[in-house]
Amino acid sequence: MINVYTASTQMIDDVQAAVSSVCSQLEQQGEISKNAIGLISCQYEFVMSGVVSALRKALPFPIAGCSSSTMAMSPIPNGLKQSETEGDLCLVLTVLDSNEFTFEAAVTEPISLESDMAHTCRPIFENREKPSLIWAFAPCVSRVAGDYLVEAITEQSGGALVFGGFSVDDSPTFQDNCFVITPDGDYRDRVGFVLFYGDIKPAFYNASISEKRLFDRDFMVTEANGAEIISINDRSSTEFLDLIGITPEMARSAVLTNLVLGIYVDDSSYYPRQIIGFSDNDTILLGGTVEAGTRFRIGGYDKADMLEAANGVLEKVFESGQQKSFAFILSCASRSVLLGSESLDEIHMVRQSLGNLPFLMAYAGGEICPLKRSDGTVFSHFQNGAFIICVI
């Protein structure tokens, strides 16, 4: 069993008051053991003002997480007084405590796009037993390639399942002030981990775009280089887009918002891969790698459909009937952009769907979540444009 404690603050400029408030909220909920771990999501100014650093010193357990553009959490459990904290100018903290499982936090050395991911991740896992579950917090996607990071974590951990996200902020590019929060400090260029040990049985849920929003035709990548699609069905990227009625101008205006590829894992499942830009040669640049021979459909996000797809997986959380303690939810920052003035609608839907189940939700610049193939095998995968849930 996992006991859950929550606290929050909106005091960015008064470090002492912020720490005092968080500690007071936790104290009224009962005694927390030294085995606990604190999961934090916050607006980046809480890092820059020193609030996160002060909490790190004040709390008797390690903290881990990253900055986000918008975040939310469930109220204090057991009916104790606290508002439902949510929005873009807040810090939310969820503490997990258990006498059945153990938690350990770790952080890599500095990392970059040129880093050998395996070499960087190896020291985290080489002297530890295989974790039952890994939560990973990565820096801005401009600093580390998501697919290569997930591949390295999976390999170096001995195949442990990975869930997590990439730091994001509320700047126009989502990249200016991205921090990973660890027990050792707050970093722009390191990967942080929460490692779970014990007989924990996590459940994972994933939503992106409904199949009805995908173009009713399969296409194939015929030439690619990492995250760059050079040709599709033996046509150049621009020829392909023109063929399906999307001009380069239309595509450029939809970048990072509603254009998405549904990449097929097999005949029954797919994951989202967003178009994030175009090269100087007008080849398509994706938010993750793709290989020649990859089959996909192309589509566009729609507000109503996006919420419908997320609600569909939220309804599955309670289908198994197994006891659940906590839900960790990440949604792509581009989904928040698409929601516009209704940016909190996805959060409000989560509150309504999960009822009394404690949760922490944040927006991310890239999402890591295990996917299931039609044969039942599960593998960790990097995505973008996704809504993902880990329930423990």
Q: What number of domains?
A: 2
Instruction: Describe the main β-sheet briefly.
Output: 6 strands, mixed
The gross shape turns out to be: globular
Secondary structure tally, helices: 10
Strand content: 25-35%
Low-confidence stretches: none
Radius of gyration: 20 Å
Considering DSSP H and I runs of 4 or more, what fraction of the residues is helical?
10-25%
Count of DSSP E strands?
A: 25
- Give the mean pLDDT: 89
Neighbour order of strands in the largest sheet: 1-6-2-3-10-11
Descriptive report:
- With 392 residues, the protein is α+β, with helices and mostly antiparallel strands.
- It has two domains: 2-206 and 306-391, no CATH class; 211-300, no CATH class.
- The protein is built from ten helices and 25 strands.
- The chain has a six-stranded mixed sheet. A six-stranded mixed sheet has the order 5-4-22-21-25-13.
- Helix 8 (303-314) runs parallel beside helix 10 (345-354).
- It is globular.
- The relative contact order is 0.16.
